[in-house]
Design goal:
About 35% of the residues lie in helices and about 25% in strands. It has helices spanning about 5-15, 20-30, 35-45, 65-85, 100-105, 120-125, 155-160, 190-195; strands spanning about 20, 50, 55-60, 90-95, 115-120, 135, 140-145, 150, 165-170, 175, 180, 200-205, 215-220, 225-230, 245-250.
């Protein structure tokens, strides 16, 4: 079966274990729910996805990973939409990999004349669907797991020379003493350089990342202008970050069945 461009976008959205319901896919791709259901039927027949709970997830994703993705998808979407609203046509940005970043990439498609530097090949393919975008991928070592991303010294050297209006990275750990951290140690350098390239530096994470420490150090928390997370973050976590945390409420429309 030859996949349509929309089906490829659906696979990109589901990349990394993200669970999405039919209504969310329809909203992100600007089509009706029946169109999405037909696309999902074809992807299911090809063995690429599994249909669950009125939505879909990539195949070969563990049940525990599915449960985590299902419980956090609405929060991830809220953060991605907030990042989208900060941008305007003609902006330039760097974009790292992760489930929130994947949702942000899809949200950007209705904008015009963006210049994007990303090390995530799935996001790059998604963004290339807009002919007004200039999408740049740094050269380097391609890793298949946990995502199709580019890293290494060559990629980092490329980013040293780049300057964008915005940078958006995603992390798994945020701690006042241990800083921003991720579990994929080989991605620490490229993630750090993606953050540093932006004039306005934004870190995205779900609220579960606060207080967590991973093995891969990216940067101190004061290196970011803004830390974007969901509304579930407790008040007692806020003082350590000097007013740079933005808690984003979920859109009530995303909670409707």
């Amino acid at each position: 079966m030859r996949l349509s461009s929309r089906q490829r976008k659906i696979l990109s959205l589901l990349h990394g274990g993200t669970y999405l319901e039919v209504k969310d896919l329809a909203q992100l791709l600007h089509v009706d729910a029946s169109t999405i259901r037909r696309d999902l039927q074809g992807l299911t027949a090809e063995g690429l996805i599994e249909r669950r709970h009125g939505g879909a997830i990539l195949r070969h994703t563990t049940d525990s990973h599915f449960s985590h993705a299902l419980s956090n998808e609405t929060e991830h979407l809220a953060v991605a939409k907030a990042a989208y609203r900060m941008l305007k046509d003609g902006d330039s940005l760097t974009l790292a990999s992760g489930p929130i970043s994947t949702l942000l990439a899809l949200s950007l498609l209705d904008m015009q004349d963006l210049t994007i530097i990303t090390n995530d090949l799935n996001s790059a393919m998604t963004l290339s669907a807009n002919p007004t975008f200039k999408v740049h991928i740094p050269g380097g070592e391609l890793r298949e797991s946990p995502a199709h991303t580019v890293s290494g010294t060559k990629a980092e050297a490329f980013l040293i020379e780049q300057r964008t209006a915005w940078s958006f990275i995603e992390v798994e750990g945020i701690h006042p003493y241990s800083g921003f951290t991720i579990s994929a140690t080989w991605q620490t350098g490229i993630t750090r350089m993606l953050l540093q390239a932006g004039k306005r530096k934004c870190v995205m994470a779900d609220s579960m990342a606060f207080g967590r420490r991973c093995v891969g150090f990216v940067s101190e928390t004061n290196s970011a202008n803004l830390i974007m997370t969901d509304e579930l973050l407790n008040d007692y976590e806020l003082p350590a970050f000097g007013g740079r945390v933005m808690r984003i409420a979920r859109d009530p429309r995303d909670l409707l069945a």
